[in-house]
Specification:
Rossmann fold, seven-stranded parallel β-sheet, 6 helices, NAD(P)-bd_dom
Amino acid sequence: MGKTAIVLGATGLTGRNLLEKLLNDSDYSRIVLFSRSTCGIVDSKITEYLIDVFELDQYKSLFRADVVFCCIGTTQSKTPDKTIYHKIDYGIPVAAANLCAKNNINRFICISALGANSKSKVFYNRTKGEMEAVVLSLNLKYTYLLQPSLITGSRNEFRFGEAIGKVLMDVLSPLFIGKFKKYKPIPSKTIVSAMLWLADHSYALQCIPSENIKEIAKEYDRNRA
């Protein structure tokens, strides 16, 4: 019997790439999705619950897995209302981590962001930092919070700000050396490889910056080659 994975955010860029990888991974026999809209994929491995994800804590009995991947995230341009933004980027990951604690799921892998800091004056960074602090306080045995820089890849939606940011980052990328190396854009597929490696291994850091994500991904890709 293979493992069961829960994926939150399977309709987004990284979540979608993760789902595709899991479907082709023989180690996983069941993939459980909680989402407000369908992923659009019909597969015997997938069990999909279309719910109000703001009410995730109401689905404790269905929240059973070996590992939980949280790829939930929005942007300030897409969600300008700070209350809703906080409910997405803070509320959903915290609810998922709490369900892990209640249901004895000891492996929680969540995408945060570079610059996450609960003391930051920047709302986005502060929200991510506050989320990290609460998740870590639950003391799940294997908690990993990935802190990528700008995530690149082919999205189903167009985000003007990110498109401009990517162009600028590509132009400036050769300048990102030394202490600035962590700001280089990172492909979503690289993040997925790192998440899958972390699903099977322990790692020294719980909050994992972009450069470390890339190194972990290389290890996963070497082992799967």
